């Protein structure tokens, strides 16, 4: 999309991404009413929240969320109440006392399920995003150094196509969606947590810190340890990482959305240096083997394609390709948050003639691609990413809407009578 067109589009749709919640006076029946202001040209549902301070010590179970006389699903999280806002259905909402309330629709059940060493995030009883917490070993005859836990695979489209791949023969250290650091330095020692065959380091699951499910999202938080094998006496933990993955229902059958938020720190006396390199950290995803040079494509927020995107910076990137039945397309929209280091973020995208000419697909947001990053001891760092997984097509205009909603979260303003 031309830069001028994008600028105009952003101006027209900005209200969607920073919705203004206007709170009106309340009757005894209502806790409050509020309206979400949207651009009339935008028609896209997404999760938003209102502050729960109106409860004034009352239980949220005593209230229902109503729109057009229909009760809606919502989910409480601390001081936030999340719900799915769909502009097609209007902008006026109210929280009312739950007296003989109509039950919410519960269009899709969201939940978590553990099976065979995987924690699955479920939408409508479908396991769409799975996190591997038990060890996966390499195929027989391959060095055991390539064993791994703490990665996401498979990622499925709503129709059931698998988009990720693990342990491909050309890169046994590739594990679906994962994010180890590659060229690092601990004091004077080089440690590689990415290339497992080097035997320098790895990233492993330690424990689950939290799981949560409701009517709007389902999530988990896992503690992962980045382990340095190059110490003389015994391996040491170089980084502690809290990984939160949250799957959102979007109110449609062809798309869903999930967040990948990582918070990490180093317990080492002198911290750790992430050296500048074309791979490392951020999020990396090895796509399914069915995508080759001739049946998948790339489009970035800056208008770059598969031939020009590698090494460039972007707010978002759409990677799409042929569906398994060869009758359509599917893919993932990747989004980088404005607070991330080096945002708009550098990318690593494999060349179209790579892998002996096959053109296999690999994507990464790589915050250390062009500049090193010193991680100071016992200091918290954070990277935030969002992905929309889709069947069919997702246009550039829609990608910009999704990114703006991610970049500028809603703000609530209470109005007096």
**Main sheet: strand order:** 16-17-18-19-29-25-24-22
* Helicity, as a percent range: under 10%
Low-confidence stretches: 1-20
> What fraction of residues sit in β-strands?
35-45%
Please identify the structural class as seen in this structure. mainly beta
Specify the biggest β-sheet.
8 strands, antiparallel
Properties at a glance:
single chain; 417 residues; 8-stranded antiparallel beta sheet; Beta-galactosidase, Chain A, domain 5; globular; mainly beta; 6-stranded mixed beta sheet; 2 domains
Describe the 3D structure.
There is one protein chain. The protein contains two helices and 30 strands. The protein has 417 residues and is mainly beta. The chain folds into two domains: 3-105; 110-407, Beta-galactosidase, Chain A, domain 5. It has an eight-stranded antiparallel β-sheet with strand order 16-17-18-19-29-25-24-22, with helices on one face. The protein has a six-stranded mixed β-sheet with strand order 5-4-8-2-1-30, with no helix packed on it. Helix 1 packs across helix 2 (396-407). The longest helix is centred in the N-terminal third of the chain and has 15 residues, at 3-17. It is globular, with a radius of gyration of 22 Å.
């Amino acid at each position: 999309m031309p830069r001028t067109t994008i600028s105009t589009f952003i101006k027209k749709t900005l209200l969607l991404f920073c919705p203004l919640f206007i709170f009106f006076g309340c009757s005894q029946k209502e806790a409050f009413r509020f309206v979400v202001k949207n651009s009339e040209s935008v028609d896209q549902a997404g999760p938003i929240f209102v502050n729960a301070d109106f409860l004034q010590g009352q239980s949220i179970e005593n209230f229902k969320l109503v729109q057009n006389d229909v009760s809606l699903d919502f989910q409480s999280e601390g001081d936030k109440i999340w719900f799915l806002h769909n502009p097609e259905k209007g902008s006026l909402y109210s929280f009312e006392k739950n007296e003989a309330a109509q039950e919410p629709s519960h269009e899709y059940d969201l939940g978590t399920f553990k099976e065979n060493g995987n924690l699955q995030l479920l939408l409508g009883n479908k396991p769409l995003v799975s996190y591997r917490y038990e060890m996966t070993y390499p195929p027989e005859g391959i060095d055991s150094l390539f064993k791994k836990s703490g990665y996401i695979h498979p990622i499925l489209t709503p129709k059931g196509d698998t988009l990720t791949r693990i342990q491909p023969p050309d890169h046994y250290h590739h594990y679906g969606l994962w994010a180890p650091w590659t060229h690092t330095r601990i004091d004077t020692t080089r440690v590689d947590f990415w290339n497992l065959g080097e035997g320098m380091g790895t990233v492993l699951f330690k424990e689950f810190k939290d799981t949560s499910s409701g009517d709007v999202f389902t999530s988990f938080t896992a503690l992962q340890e980045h382990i340095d094998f190059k110490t003389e006496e015994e391996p040491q933990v170089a980084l502690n990482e809290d990984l939160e993955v949250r799957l959102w229902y979007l109110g449609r059958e062809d798309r869903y959305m999930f967040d990948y938020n990582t918070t990490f720190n180093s317990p080492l006396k002198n911290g750790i240096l992430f050296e500048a390199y074309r791979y490392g950290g951020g999020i990396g995803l090895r796509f399914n083997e069915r995508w080759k040079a001739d049946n998948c494509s790339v489009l970035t927020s800056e208008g770059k394609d598969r031939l020009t995107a590698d090494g460039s910076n972007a707010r978002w990137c759409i990677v799409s390709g042929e569906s398994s039945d060869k009758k359509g397309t599917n893919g993932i929209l990747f989004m980088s948050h404005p607070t991330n280091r080096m945002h708009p973020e550098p990318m690593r995208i494999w060349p179209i003639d790579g892998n002996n000419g096959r053109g296999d697909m690999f994507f990464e947001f790589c915050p250390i691609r062009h500049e090193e990053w010193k991680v100071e001891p016992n200091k918290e760092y954070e990277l935030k990413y969002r992905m929309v997984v889709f069947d069919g097509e997702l246009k550039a205009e829609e990608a910009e809407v999704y990114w703006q909603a991610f970049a500028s979260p809603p703000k609530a303003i209470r109005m007096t009578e």
